Batch of 3 targets.
Target 1
Amino acid sequence: MSSLNTTQRNLPLVVLVSGAGTNLQAILEACAQGSLPATVEAVISDRGTAPALQRAAAAGITTHVLQPQDYPDRASYDRVLALLIDSHAPGLVVLAGFMRILNDAFVQHYRGRMVNIHPALLPKYRGLRTHRRVLAAGEREPGSSVQFVTRELDGGPVIAQSKVPVRMDDTERSLTARVQACEHRLYPQVIRWIAEGRVRLADESVVFDGARRRSPVIMDWDETTS
Ligand code: GAR
């Protein structure tokens, strides 16, 4: 396992996707605008039909498709995936709607160098169909979390969160859209902190500006509270 190298100017990223790729788009735009000192070296998808691949190609980024059905088991898939990622020498692996569970060896290999975004205020609502469960539970203020990936699914130390209040007339679709709009600010911001060397993983804790955090940073943007 190698440690995160944040001394270079632009942090090289490999982004893993399965779906629409709106978070990938936000990261690409932040890099292009110069607000995120990072470069997307490659985008890898487990689904050949993922619209995220078109977004990457439109931005001139190298893309790869690695389909699980082409591998005999999870371990073989994860091994090849790691080799492919490492061939791009990323400083950080970014899971942006990558809907696969990764095995322990893979997660350990990228410990402290892999982040995930999840559409809930973790540790609440791990897993799938988050917004549906949030609405069914009568939750008033869900949100999104960015975390380091560790062995426990959606259980890694959370770096930052953003809250998105539920509205009276919210549907699963409208809530998803507002949470995603907030994710598009949150994810580039957290990756920026990592690129600047301000955030790192130490044991099971997030260290921010040299201090061990007891709780996630809460981002409070006007748009997310209106
Ligand atoms: C995002 O909302 C992200 O939080 C979620 O998938 C969506 C991907 O959207 N991730 C998870 O649920 C991971 N457990 P995108 O493809 O448009 O970025």
Target 2
Amino acid sequence: MRLPSPFTITGGRIIDPATGTDAIGSIEIRDGAITAVNLDAAPPSGPTIDATGLIVAPGLIDPHVHLREPGQTHKEDIESGSRAAAAGGFTTVCCMPNTTPALDNVAAIVNVERRAQEVGLCRVRVVAAATVARQGQKPVDFAALASAGAVAFSDDGDGIEDDAVCSAVMAGIKNVDSVLFPHCEFKALSHSGAVHLGPVSRQLGLVGYDPHGEEAMIERDLALVAKLGVRYHVAHVSTAKGIALIADAKRRKLPVTTEVCPHHLLLCDTDVLRADGTPDPNFKMSPPLRSATDRAACIEAVRSRVIDCVVTDHAPHTASEKNAPFERAPMGIVGLETSLACAARALLDPPAFDWPDLIERMSTAPARIFRLPGGTLRVGAPADVVLIDPDRAWDVDPQQFHSRSQNTPFGGWRLTGRAVCTLLAGRITHLDAAQRDRLIAKSDF
Ligand code: DOR
Ligand code: ZN
């Protein structure tokens, strides 16, 4: 929906972690950019959206999503994924390259960006493959892919197991001043298990997913980062030991950052079991839900900033794929439409950890790490904005998702906090039906 230019969003709680702003005020938007932030009471003239009672924050940024285009568009595509992102309050997402074929060449990147622009609901940037066809053998052409727009490099879904290949990848990425965004897993050590190794895997008689596979690769990589100095962002960290390794690297001032997913903050391995004791494939992902101790370590690390950002790892799979027996069901869950409220549930503990901290982890920090526009409401920034109702309680109904897939463990959960309006460069990309009248009809447009 196009809005007049200029217009003003008034009366909301303006939160901008980039400037340390947290106050009632208004922002003016003109020609797709933020042109004024006004924290005194002076009433603006001209058309307004009344955001009284809402948080006004920079649009959320998720650097870790799977949009499945090309090749797996029965699960998701750039249009359905962008719609889900906008509904979740996101204005920028970065898509992972484990498509079919993989995003390992310039034409593939250009196609994704062109399609995302046609759809126009969300900025979509590409995380390109780190090795050709994600085979872990031959590094890609980092210079060509970075100049085509790749924001980082990853073989997500698989680790780069070979030490020499990983060194070459790091050196190549360092050369173009980009970021290695690794999925850390030695499969021989993790055993590609179905559930976290522990009492639950033993009770079910399933192969245990050993955390050592993740931790050993983080450890190997950090030694290489110390030598090579490449910017390094660990994907979906899930174990207490992995977090401790990253904390130590940060103390040594290595250029290391990391992220966690809401499901690793809210769930652990015992949650995989249904009431009848059978495992539910909607709780199966890689890395898996870990122990209660790991979960507590993840929460603490977000609060202490050892973990820099909260990302979804939005990984759509169809119901028929997920309905396979647990061992054979694919790994991954959708997250774009539940992420904000799940992260709020897991983390908010004001005043120690309040909405500005959450917005920082879900917008400002990813913008900084991947050098993306947005993540701030500063004058001159693109008008990528989310209006959040922090008190809105709602029930997760996967049938209502905009995503093409419904594979979530949170179906039926009652959550609090919701993106009610998302603006991309000053255009509305999502407007909650229940808020339409309040926000738009009463506005003097
Ligand atoms: O659970 C996951 N799903 N983890 C991954 O690393 C890949 C992803 C996918 O593409 O489905
Ligand atoms: Zn992923």
Target 3
Amino acid sequence: MPHLLTISHYDLEFLQHLLDLSSYLQNRRDVKPLDGSTILFCFEKPSLRTKLATEVAINQLGGSVIHITPEEFLGGKVLHAPQDAKGIPEEREALKDTVKNVAQWCDGIFTRVYNHQTLQKLASYSDIPVINGLCNLHHPMQALADLYTIHESFRSDKQVTITFIGDANNVAYSLIEIGLIFGHKMQFSGPKAYYWNQSQLAHFSALAHKYGGTFTHTPEPDLVVSNSDVIYTDAFISMGEEDQYQQKIAHFEGFQINEALFEKAPEHARFMHCLPAHRGIEVTDAIMDHPNSLVYQQAKNRMVTAKGVFAVLCNEEFQLETKSPLVSLS
Ligand code: CP
Ligand code: NVA
């Protein structure tokens, strides 16, 4: 069963097909790959873009969405059990049974979770595609829209230098993965206290080696701005890390994208942010609202690439092996 938990689960050929399909479906509102399909949405954390852009995409593809709470879907607790009750199971039912039930009625599961392991468990039980709407380690739906946006701004055969400045987080990880798979030059700059671990660095090196891109990193943002085509940042404190705010934020001094830093980049350099942005913290108003800022174009493309994801994963006719809609309907 094809799932989308991480970007690097797929190769260049598949990801290119997905982006081509996204572009095709953007202009073909008459094509309905999800006609009659229902996708279950379950979000453990708040969302604007991921939830809305994806639901609109599914509607435009002819499908529909049902929302379920994490309490109902991800192991609901037994309510009304007496405090001193012994032997009453804590969970309403096993996750495996919940997922196997959902597959009787639905055609896909789209979920935002705190812990990547929750996605792995869901996928291991699921007979329908499980699609990651963000977890602690990855944000593949964002990375697809971001690469699509970059390829709209730069020639798609050009090797682009993409610099992420900030936290070594889920958004940065998926962006670096997809950038390397498409052979781009990926640069990272963040404080040493919140950095990639050895196995993550080895993974980036392996992708660079396999696909012909490069990965470089430094704790000095000034060193990587001057050759950048794209400068990207995200929140310094991600959802679920709020209790670390005070201890974490001090380490990010000097990593804000502001006019002084952005002036050191080439004139053509674009600014990107997955949003939500914290104006005045990781980025200033001047850069968010800069003529070279792509932030709202990225948001628009969340819907475009969500179409490619759901078409390719939930309709066999749109899979890479067949490619039939691209050939026969274009
Ligand atoms: N970029 C992104 O995923 O935004 P939301 O948290 O609003 O979904
Ligand atoms: N890194 C952020 C991204 C939000 C879209 C978070 O996980 O909260």
